[in-house]
Amino acid sequence: MKKLNWLLLLVGLWLGITALAWGDELRLEPEVIAPGEVALARWIASGPTVGELRFNDKLIPLEPGEEGGWALLGLDLGADPGDYPLRLRLPGGTERPVGTLKVTAKKRPEERLTLPKAYVSPQDPAVLQRIERESKLLRQIFSVRSSVPLPTAFVLPVGDPMGSPFGLRRILNGQPRSPHAGVDFRSPRGTVVGAGGAGRVVFTGDLYYCGLTAIVDHGDGLYSIYCHLESLDCAPNQTVDLGTPLGRVGSTGRSTGPHLHWGVKLRGDRVDPLALTTLLGGKKS
């Protein structure tokens, strides 16, 4: 009888916790995004919530807060518009629908350039092998979803005017190319580049396209990328805070002049860095 009473008590507690979670509310900010943008999902509850959101075939852990939890949602620049359902999954595996993120198409600007053929489409076998090695390395880096705490603030790495925007459609020598997967800043050579958010440096080195590059892991598949640097002021495994100097602006790699290319990956998806700064900050630290 005592065992039965304990069992009934445990079941009652579990049902109470589950009912409490189901009685709470999911809020999205914003409620509608475009491909390549991000949203903040807030699970509003009477206390910290341990669980995950299922979104676009991925399980995203909630960052516990005093009143529920939160998570960053994002979709790749090439994702299809539509309604993307959200489901809450509790530690016991119980799962139910809690909302929908609406994704609408967005018209992106277009740029046409005429450049030397070798600059646009390298033919040298050694160069092609290098590009393939570097692409594989970057895919491996961005596939890791570490336990580094997600930043609660995200800011611009420099305070200079912006050049090419995120999502810019580029036509090089009459041929469509991959859209611009970052934001360019027209920064003078030597400008100090700060980390957009707290995290850990996971890569520094010279890449064919990006030149001297630093990559920071911000946790759960969120990475920021800083390209075409003239010099590096950070090292792999270094912990950085908001605004920690990573390097200085240059024109290394495939670049026509000094500028900073700033990109962000979220669980493998190309997302707009400015969408993050809109949600979690905005100005240079």
UniProtKB/TrEMBL annotation:
This is M23 family metallopeptidase. Gene3D superfamilies: Glucose Permease (Domain IIA), Peptidoglycan hydrolase domains. It comes from Trichloromonas acetexigens. SUPFAM superfamilies: Duplicated hybrid motif. InterPro entries: Cell_wall_metabolism_enzyme, Dup_hybrid_motif, M23ase_b-sheet_dom. Residues 179-273 form the M23ase beta-sheet core domain. GO terms for molecular function: metalloendopeptidase activity. It holds the Pfam family Peptidase_M23.
